[in-house]
Write a structure and sequence with these properties.
heterotrimer; A alpha+beta; B alpha+beta; C alpha+beta; B: alpha+beta; four-stranded antiparallel β-sheet; 34% helix; C: DNA polymerase, domain 1; 2 domains; five-stranded mixed β-sheet; 5 helices; 5 strands; globular
């Protein structure tokens, strides 16, 4: 017999290193010869979309197309340190560093433009389409390329380097009190499962994921992160087991370490909740890890709702579920 | 062991020649889905590999007047894409479709699945309930044995090192009351090795009387097995929910004795009931 | 050493190879088609998927000799960087690519599906990529992309039909 059940779970997660640990990202912005803008950051792209988001943030500040940004990363001989691609911190931390550095760069760009345009002050200058123009008299303008050419002749470079440090405080070792992280990301996931009461097999038939993101820098990539987090969480809940025996991993290959296939996951309904974070770049927060956190508890709650058993050890294999059903389940 | 030679054959005659020449050193490469893993791990049993994957005369599905013949190199995809088998030999079709993944089904063969002799071989239980015969040839003789006589108690197979399994045949039945079911329990919905599988062949007559029945299981013993005790219990009874429940308990008891002492026993003796019930309810037919 | 002839991405090759060379090693090391990825080496992950005579296979589970006289398509034969196949375009457009390791195999599984089934359901698509493991994407954007690519290909098909 197949029984259905629903479960929800909520989580909040502090992003960044936290607990008073120095959490620093540095970015360098430079005007390149042809008028393109380079962003150098030591942020590693592992598929999460750091390169895209950091380019987006940079282009947004300067009002240029993302194609006019040259992103240089993953080369420690060329880039400043932006910390690890970990702790869901790159969008927030390095994003902030890029934003501040780009703002600083813009000021320098305006100073150069002032000289080139023979103005008394840089007040009222703006950028658009790789041009710097005077808002009150737009015919008064120069291009990034012209500025770059002038600088090249003078053998000068225009660049700005800035750092961002996330605010965290150490917890009191005696009382455990403190504010170890900032910011926090929130989410709530709901799943519906079907439990086969005769074999203990679980199928996830529906999933709804509501994710607070601060500000959605790139909704498609956020959805992709939610999908991926859900898949990892589902594998964690139902399949994945390293099988540690005396310090060795028994399930050390894909035929034994079971992860979900496309046929093991439901269609995932996603809800992106925007509530801009005042300290984030354009209000954005990190979501990389948070997206997988509520998955396992939501699934376990749904199993409980379906057959009345509480699985307290992961993965919730058919064996464990069937054994629990036989001993005390409500079927 | 290392591979010393790889030869390619294009006909049964060529295969038999090489087998005769190299004897026990020979290992046949059909789909390769298991053998390539073995070679890489140095676990291949023979050092002379004969690639038989292009022997066309062993790659066929023949729906004849009285018999259905599957060439030993018929792939799981060939079976899964065959409309006749889907309609009329549903359990076999379901088993083929449940194998591994599209890539594995495109390469893996029926003959390989039988000869490799894994207890979890998906295609074997439905062939057991179809009472399939294996057509075997060597340079010196040709013989036909029943699949149920192929796996030997000592773990070996009823096949000499100079013999080739070239096709599998079973009776084509015209009886409208025949039902053929298959059910498998894997750890996930694709790329899953059977933890338990079960196939049922039944002729259900008037008043749901079970006129004939054959049942086979996978992953419940050293090799896929016919479940004779269960067949005996069910034959000539009227198929209903109560009877299925009773039969499931008998099956469970059988599995408990068979797997006694194994860590998988407590689970399999319970889960086998559910798998059997699904197989005999002919779901997806 | 043995001689084999095969056609990869429309080009004929006549090669002398070690007898126990796997197809994936032939493609990557001898012919330089490094878009074919090795993941597990045992047919469980699908990263090494190529199309052999119209059907997807795990190139880690074939000896090169099995491809003698046959046609193979690798990811390099699907589209070029400045002339992508609609499936590749769709993967890019719809955010299907995260770390990217599984993607060549995914695209080839999608190609083999759409060559046979012009209008697949989402279930058909999930079935077709069920032998390709992905750790990043949760598959959904990949399924979306293949579904959208099928619509684009159908539309192109009917347009070219109209031109006739």
């Amino acid at each position: 017999m197949k029984k259905r059940g629903k479960g929800i779970a909520v989580s909040f997660y502090g992003t960044g290193y936290g607990n008073g640990f120095p959490d620093v990202s540095t970015a360098t912005i430079r005007l390149e010869d042809e008028g393109k803008i380079s962003i150098s950051v030591g942020a590693t792209e592992v598929g999460q979309g750091a390169k895209t988001v950091l380019s987006q943030i940079g282009s947004e500040v300067l009002g240029i197309e993302i194609e006019d940004i040259v992103l240089i990363n993953e080369d420690t001989s060329k880039t400043p340190d932006s910390g690890t691609a970990a702790a869901s911190r790159q969008t927030y931390n390095t994003g902030n560093a890029v934003k501040i550095a780009m703002e600083s760069f813009r000021k320098k760009l305006f100073e150069e433009s002032k000289e080139l345009l023979g103005l008394n002050t840089s007040i009222g200058l703006e950028t658009k389409n790789k041009e710097v123009y005077l808002k009150m008299f737009p015919q008064k303008k120069t291009t990034f390329k012209e500025i770059a050419q002038k600088l090249k002749k003078q053998k000068r470079r225009l660049e700005a380097t800035e750092s961002f440090t996330a605010q965290t405080t150490e917890m009191d070792p005696e009382t455990g009190q403190g504010a170890p992280y900032w910011p926090y990301t929130f989410n709530c996931y709901g799943v519906e499962v079907e439990v086969d009461t005769e074999t203990g097999k679980v199928d996830i038939i529906r999933a709804l994921c509501a994710q607070d993101v601060g500000r959605a820098m790139n909704p498609t990539m956020i959805e992709g992160q939610i999908d991926g987090g859900f898949a990892m969480g589902a594998g964690y809940a139902l399949f994945e087991d390293l099988g540690l025996k005396e310090g060795r991993i028994k399930n050390n290959k894909f035929s034994k370490y079971i992860i979900p296939t496309a046929l093991d996951l439901p269609e995932i309904e996603k809800f992106i909740i925007e509530d801009p974070e005042s300290t984030g770049p354009f209000g954005a927060k990190g979501i990389g890890e948070p997206v997988m956190i509520p998955v396992a508890p939501a699934i376990l709650n749904a199993i409980y709702n379906a057959v009345g058993v509480r699985i307290l050890e992961l993965p919730a294999t058919p064996e464990k579920i069937l054994q629990a059903i036989k001993s005390y389940g409500k079927v | 062991m290392g591979v010393t030679r790889v030869l390619k054959a294009y006909s049964i005659e060529e295969i038999l020649d090489v087998m005769e020449k190299y004897g026990e050193k020979v290992e046949l490469l059909a789909g390769g889905t298991d053998l390539l893993v073995d070679i890489r791990a140095g676990k291949n049993k023979g050092s002379v590999i004969i690639d038989i994957s292009d022997v066309k005369e062993m790659k066929k599905i023949e729906i004849g007047e009285d018999d259905i013949v599957l060439g030993a190199l018929t792939t799981f995809t060939d079976i899964a894409e065959n409309d006749y088998l889907k309609e009329n030999v549903t359990g076999l079709w379901k088993a083929a479709k449940s194998v591994g993944s599209p890539q594995i089904r495109n390469m893996g063969t029926v003959g390989g699945n039988i000869c490799n002799g894994s207890p979890a071989a998906d295609i074997v239980p439905p062939l057991l309930v179809l009472d399939a015969k294996l057509n075997i040839k060597s340079r010196s003789k040709q013989r036909k044995i029943k699949l149920k006589e192929f796996y030997m108690e000592n773990g070996s197979r009823n096949l000499r090192s100079d013999e080739l399994l070239y096709s599998i045949s079973f009776t084509k039945s015209r009886d409208k009351n025949i039902r053929i079911g298959f059910e498998k329990l894997g750890l996930r919905n694709a790329l899953a090795i059977s933890r338990i599988s079960c196939s049922v062949y039944a002729i259900i007559g008037e008043n749901n009387r079970i006129e004939n029945i054959r049942i086979a299981s996978g992953a419940l013993g050293k090799y896929p097995l016919r479940e004779y005790a269960l067949e005996k219990f069910l034959k000539d009874k009227n198929l209903n929910d109560g009877l299925i429940e009773e039969a499931a308990e008998i099956f469970s008891h059988e599995v408990k004795q068979r797997l006694s002492g194994r860590s998988s026993c407590p689970y399999k003796k319970e889960a086998v009931k559910g798998i059997f019930k699904k197989a005999i309810s002919f779901e997806g037919e | 050493m043995i001689n084999i002839k095969l056609n990869v991405n429309g080009k004929d090759y006549d090669l002398e190879i070690e007898e126990d060379l796997r197809l994936i090693d032939l493609l990557r090391d001898r012919l330089g088609f490094t878009g074919t990825k090795e993941g597990c080496g045992e047919g469980e992950c699908g990263a090494c998927t190529v199309i052999l005579e119209g059907k997807t296979v795990n190139s880690c589970l074939l000896l090169a000799i099995q491809a003698h006289g046959k046609e193979i398509t690798t990811i390099e034969g699907i589209g070029k960087e400045d002339d992508l196949h609609p499936i590749q375009e769709s993967f890019l457009e719809n955010g299907a690519v995260q770390c990217g390791y599984c993607i060549p195999g995914m695209v080839l599984s999608a190609k083999a599906l759409l060559d046979k089934n012009k209008n697949p359901t989402r279930k058909d698509i999930r079935e077709a990529i069920s032998g390709n493991l992905c750790r990043c994407t949760g598959y959904e954007k990949i399924v979306d992309s293949i579904e959208k690519a099928s619509k684009i290909l159908q539309q192109r098909g009917s347009e070219s039909h109209e031109q006739l």
